[in-house]
Each structure stands twice: as C-alpha cells, then as structure tokens.
Amino acid sequence: MPLHPFNGITPRLDASAWVAPGARVIGNVDIGADSSIWYNVVVRGDVMPIHIGRRSNIQDGSVVHVTTRLAATSIGDDVLVGHLAMIHGCTLMDRSFVGLSATVMDGCVIEPDGMLGAGALLSPGRRIGARELWLGRPAKYVRMLSAEEVARNQAGVAGYVALARLHRESLG
C-alpha cells in the first residue's frame, strides 16, 4: 500500500477501502469503508488532518491537501471527486460532487448533493448549497439539480465502489 507516515502519524485506512498503485497517502489521513483513492492521486495530510468518509472516491490524478493552521480537509460519505481535481482545505459534505479538473479552495463548503462542474474554480470561502450546480472560473450558481441528476451522481458512487473492488481483485 502506498501509505506514508509523516511526523509520526501514519494514515488510517478501513480494511475495505482501496488505494491504487501509484497513489500516495501521507500523514494524518483517515479513509472510510469502501472508499477509493485512484491512480496517481496525492492525499497529503502533513500540516492538518484529512478525513475521507465511506464510499467516497478520489479519481485519477487528483490532489487533496490542507492549509497550515487554517483549514483541514473533510470529505463526507458518498462523495465523487472527478479526475485531476484539486481539493484544498475545504469541506465536501455527504453526496457532493466535484467535476473533472475542478478546484475547491480554502474554506469552501459544498453541501449535500451540491455539484461543482468540470473545470470550475470555487474561490476561497465560497459555499455551494444543497443540490446547487455551480460552473465557471470563478464558479457561479447556475441552477438547482434535478432529482434525476442527483440520482445519477449517486449511481456513480455505487459504480466506483464496485469498480474499486474489481481493481483490487485484478491487481492482487
């Protein structure tokens, strides 16, 4: 496993969670049941803690970090973080979604079922409300998500839990 202690603190990983080869999980990081950290992801809890809940996934090439003495990072349950995302010193509440190549900066909050679209930049201290869709650089509110869109996002969570199991079994 690509888990690395830092300053005497070793990452904590539930037995059912999966970290892909090539990913790096460093320091004060806690990863919940059935969560997955994909290829070439860096989760670096060196100067503040990082919590990742149950059934959440951090997709390929993403970075999850913190801000010294300012902001830890908390990722809830059933969260989707798309490929190449930058998650920094923020809170992603249960069932939130961060699109491909999106950036969530210090002090931001994405509420349950909130969505930051692909390529968007959520400026420091901003808050996406429950079921809101935000897009752009800087990100701005666009509209409320439909029940079908929320359900599709949660189906993606289930798909990633199953896919992580397949990768774990295939890679041994």
Overall pLDDT: 96
> Portion of residues in helices?
10-25%
Order of helices and strands: EEEEEEEEEEEEEEEEEEEEH
Strand count, sense and barrel status of the largest sheet are: 12 strands, parallel
The poorly predicted ranges are none
Instruction: Give me the secondary-structure category.
Output: mainly beta
Into which percentage range does the β-strand content fall?
35-45%
Number of domains: 1
Give the N-to-C terminal Cα separation. 12 Å
Question: What is the CATH topology descriptor?
Answer: UDP N-Acetylglucosamine Acyltransferase, domain 1
CATH class: Mainly Beta
Shape descriptor: globular
CATH architectural group:
3 Solenoid
How many runs of DSSP E, i.e. beta strands?
20
Radius of gyration: 15 Å
Given the structure, what is the number of helices? 1
**CATH-assigned homologous superfamily:** Hexapeptide repeat proteins
Topology:
Layout: E1 3-4, E2 12-13, E3 18-19, E4 24-31, E5 36-37, E6 42-52, E7 57-58, E8 63-65, E9 73-75, E10 80-81, E11 86-88, E12 91-92, E13 97-98, E14 103-104, E15 109-110, E16 115-116, E17 121-122, E18 127-128, E19 132-135, E20 140-144, H1 147-171
Parallel strand pairs: 1-4, 2-4, 3-5, 4-6, 5-7, 6-8, 6-9, 7-10, 8-11, 9-12, 10-13, 11-14, 12-15, 13-16, 14-17, 15-18, 16-19
Antiparallel strand pairs: 19-20
Overview of this protein structure:
The chain is mainly beta. The protein has one domain: UDP N-Acetylglucosamine Acyltransferase, domain 1 (3 Solenoid). The protein has one helix at residues 147-171, and strands spanning 3-4, 12-13, 18-19, 24-31, 36-37, 42-52, 57-58, 63-65, 73-75, 80-81, 86-88, 91-92, 97-98, 103-104, 109-110, 115-116, 121-122, 127-128, 132-135, 140-144. The strands form two sheets. Strands 1, 2, 4, 6, 8, 9, 11, 12, 14, 15, 17 and 18 form a twelve-stranded parallel β-sheet that branches. It has an eight-stranded mixed β-sheet with strand order 3-5-7-10-13-16-19-20. Strand 19 (132-135) and strand 20 form a beta hairpin. It is globular, with a radius of gyration of 15 Å. The model has no long low-confidence stretch (mean pLDDT 96).
